[in-house]
Amino acid sequence: MSHARSVITTVALAAALLSLAQPAAALEPVRREGWSLGLALGLSHGSITPPSGPDFYAKDGAVAQIAVSRALSPRWRVGLAWHDWLTERGDADLRVRRSMQNVLLAATLVPGNLDNAWSGFYLRGGVGIAQGRYSTAGADEHGEDIDLLATDQTGVAFHAGVGYEFAISREVAVGTLLSANIASYDDELFDHGWFAPVSVSLNWSF
To answer: Containing H/E element for 200?
Structure first.
């Protein structure tokens, strides 16, 4: 999916999940039973190292994250996660975009007490497939992309994260997520890269 469409989809899903929330008491323990759908949006700094030449670094990248997981126990969940980091540079005549997307097999652990506020604290780790993209595009009189040229690279991705959630209903929790993502490409444009976002998260259990 395109980056703009993926962000719009994430926002629409978040709005739909919030509409399902039922009231919950303050600091009620977070329950993660059955399946979970997690959404997150945030900002991230990151870096891309090419095979030769200087590194590219940006601190204004946008990040969207989606995770689907299944509870194995009250403490453990496993599933798939998708993380996307995008930056844009250039001017009115040429737009230069760099992005990294990771599709991961991820595991989440709740290490604290499951019956109080510590139930919202969790750790996450994952490994999977990385895709890096470098693209250039011009702009027409309406500001739309023209003459888009894109090069994709694939590699191996690693993820580690720590987050905290507050229950706002029996099914829905909101919180924050701090994560680190590393990708190894060893390719023509990207040798390796990383991005470390701070995100606002929304999780629905069903």
So the answer is: strand 192-205
CA–CA gap between residue 143 and residue 196 (Å, rounded): 30
Gap between the Cα atoms of 154 and 129, Å rounded: 7
State residue 153's pLDDT score: 94
Q: Which residues of the chain have pLDDT under 50?
A: 1-2, 21
Sequence letter at residue 194: W
CB 64 within 8 A of CB 101: no
Q: State residue 143's pLDDT score.
A: 76
Q: Among 104, 69, 106, 99, which residue's Cα sits nearest to residue 84?
A: 99
Find the helix or strand (DSSP H, E) in which 108 lies. Answer: strand 95-109
Secondary structure, 3-state, 166-198? EECCCCEEEEEEEEEEEEECCCCCCCEEEEEEE
Distance CA 14, CA 203 (A): 9
Mean of per-residue pLDDT scores for the chain: 88
In whole angstroms, give the CA distance from residue 126 to residue 110.
Answer: 15
**What percent helix, strand, coil does the chain show, rounded to 5?**
10, 65, 25
The pTM of this model reads 0.82
Domain map (residue ranges) of the chain: 3-205
Helix/strand/coil for 119: helix
Q: Going by CATH, does the domain composed of 3-205 fall within 2.40.160.20?
A: yes
